[in-house]
Automatic annotation (TrEMBL):
GO terms for molecular function: DNA binding; sigma factor activity. This is RNA polymerase subunit sigma-24. NCBIfam families: sigma70-ECF. InterPro entries: RNA_pol_sigma-70-like, RNA_pol_sigma-70_dom, RNA_pol_sigma70_r2, RNA_pol_sigma70_r4_t2, RNA_pol_sigma_r2, RNA_pol_sigma_r3/r4-like, WH-like_DNA-bd_sf. GO terms for biological process: DNA-templated transcription initiation. Belongs to the sigma-70 factor family. ECF subfamily. Residues 19-86 form the RNA polymerase sigma-70 region domain. Keywords: DNA-binding, Sigma factor, Transcription, Transcription regulation. Pfam families: Sigma70_r2 (PF04542), Sigma70_r4_2 (PF08281). Residues 136-186 form the RNA polymerase sigma factor 70 region 4 type domain.
Amino acid sequence: MDDLIQRARKGDSEAFVALFEQSRPALWRAALAVLGNECDAADALQEAAVKAWQAIPRFEGRSSVGTWFMRIALRVSFDIRGKRGREAPYAPETFQVDAPSNRGDRERGGVDAVPLDDFRVIVGGKHRADQDEAMDVRRAIARLSPDDRLVLTLFYLDDFPTQQIAAILNASEGAVRARLTRARARFRDAYCGNDNQKAEAAR
């Protein structure tokens, strides 16, 4: 990793691409959580890659390169969201583990692409989710705010510790833990609300 960073700082584009690709899945999930749709998330990643390439000669290693990439990607994502002045409709069926590799993958989505079991941990689920649960989980995610989706994504899907999330979000670790607690509660409420709606419909 250090060798790649040093080479990238000296203008080696192949080294930079190798570094960025290592972080791409996490960056994709974060951008999607903030922006709510794959088209905007793809635009954000492309812009973030350009900005990171331009800035990599000044990278001083005060944080990990993955944290540095994430800050850039989130700054771009929030800028895009701010320019629109509204949150784009969130399509939960497109919430994927990795960035889609082509247009067909982007349009396909589907239950198998969703990291359901990671999010089911929040509500105490132990077994693998079936298709009905997949829909419930996705609907619950769709009801969350972008900020809630982001902190849950960073913690549960990207496995970032609260200390690293604090560095990414420029917040205290205590503030991150408080945000996680609130986001988990909102996810559980949304998830259990899906169960209540199904129970009412079955009567």
